[in-house]
Amino acid sequence: MTSTDTLALEIRQVSVAFGGARTRVAALTEVDLTLRTGTFTAVMGPSGSGKSTLLNCAAGLQRPTSGQVLVEGQDITGWDERRLARLRSQRLGFVFQSFHLIPYLTAAQNVGLPRRLAGRAVDDAKVAQLLDAVGLGDRGGQLPSTLSGGQQQRIAIARALVNDPAVVLADEPTGALDSRTAHDILALLRRCVDDLGRTVVMVTHDPRTAAFADSVVFLVDGRVAGQMHQPSPEAVAGQLAHLDELTVAGAA
Amino acid sequence: MIELARASIRRRTVTFAATFLSLLLGTTLIGSFATLAETSFGEMSSADTDTLRIIGMIVGGWGALIVLFSVASTLTVSVGQRAEEIGLLRVVGATPGQVRRLIHLETAAVAVVAAGFGAALAGPGGRGLFHLLRRGGMVDDAVPFGGTALALAATVLVVVLTALLAAAITARRATSGSPLLAVHDERSAARRMRWWRIAIGLALVGYGLIMAVITITVTGRSDNPYAAMATSGSSSILVGIGLATLSPAVLHHGTRLLRPIVPRGAAGWLAVHHNTRRPHLLGGVLAPVIVLTSAAVGTLMLVGIDHRTVGQSLPQAAKINLINNLIAAMICLFAAVMVLNAYAAVGAGRRPELDRLRLLGATPILLQAVVAQEAMLTAVVGTTTGLLASLSTTIPFSVARHEGLVPDGQLWLPPLVMIGAAGLTLAAALRTTRHRRTAQGAG
N or C: which terminal CB in chain A sees fewer CB atoms within 10 Å? Predict the structure, then answer.
């Protein structure tokens, strides 16, 4: 599972356009992105750069206008709603800015939910082990409303991992958290990659958040405008400040 | 504030349509019967005066009670759904008083328009009703229809005030507590029933039980065959409303009892947890299902027992049975509209949560199954509770009229009503899922 030469997610020449023939707006233009298994990638860019659209394409929530999305080598672009739903519940994990826990299910039930949705048995031992791994082994019986924001996001991460997903898709996972809690959550995501061999792609606009990743992909106006390996917060911030020049260079 | 209220009404067409519909229907019904009561003040025999006044007052009075109940429940759901928006308004600086005024203004606007249209319909409605009574020989042919704008204006006043009372109760609840709490996914917090709600519920149930004992021990032995009906006739409706007042608790415990027979699988599992841990949401649907079942079964069985035992031999029987049937029909109609209303309101509020499930990989079919099973659980709990409530009329009256604990006939009626109510609930639930689109984005 942790070998670095398998591909968890491949986005090939994906373009997404909204609106009709005359009011056409391009959200993504010929984007390429390849995620190897066991890597942590951040996608950065200003608002409206197409970050969320990219994540939605990877999740099968948004059909590309052209191009292909491959999850573990399988092209999902032509799949119907049922197959895409199965893909989401079995091969993908999600972490959202607003946690998206189901309010009437306990923490442990939320963690086991993707398995239930996939029609599989819930492995209680595995749920307990995941809750332990995110540091909430003793909170399994509590409802989300009784937990803090950081705790809810930990539950969401445990939920994202329950199916041993090919890719964990995280959309601004620390956007609603204070900096200290955010640091803990990012360290947890980092451990998911380093210790558990999971693949994580995270959308963010914060350089310090992006610096937790192995590499950063910059998006501007729906195009890939650069990539950085082993990012530091300073380097990412510097790059962000000069994104306009990058786009010009990329277009040339 | 008026600008905000207007924008808010425009954006929430479904919920406001639900409130509008119950107010419109309520005004039409009450207004029609109010013109009958007004007619009774004209020149006519005292028997005719009695007939018109009793039909007008009793049915009109019941109508007012039902309108209050239905408007309150529709408003509760619609305001509860807006907890987040209300929290947001308060966070940006709206005082609790301003938020309350906003809710009052919105309700007043909808109520005045709905009651106005309702009054316009009630004029011809009352006239039609009066001609029906005259043709049926219950009122002398020489008596003219005497309903005027006065009765209609009084009705509009009562309906608007009733709606405002319901809005005041709901608005007060929506603005108590910290605004931050309200923004922070208030809907997920287990909401406890207020003490007065529990008190009203228990009082109504207690009333029914006491009346049952009185019917069997006192009025059932009276020489007047209608004494027993007077003490037991309204029990099923009042006990039904009492249990409906306690609907979140009823749904919670009822669903737990039913858990063993719920189909295995993700849909049933989610449905059970939704109904037990967030019972106040579908409690708004459960309440009218209980009242519908208890009122229909209780009243129609009462009429049946009366008809079999003494009804055919007494002259006033036809009139009394007509009134009973009118009450039952009116309550059923209202409860049915409320089931549809409540589901429209619940459906709009649940969209984000169902989208969340979709995001995590629930198929559209699974989501439909979740909604259907929640509705089925609610329908089974509601019709069973309603049936139990109807016994508060059926058993005492049956004993008083010497048919024993189980009436001699019409035993097909309860299952028929239950199936009808359950079918209505399921249809209303599935209607809300039919128009669902694909989940919007992950962000």
Answer: C
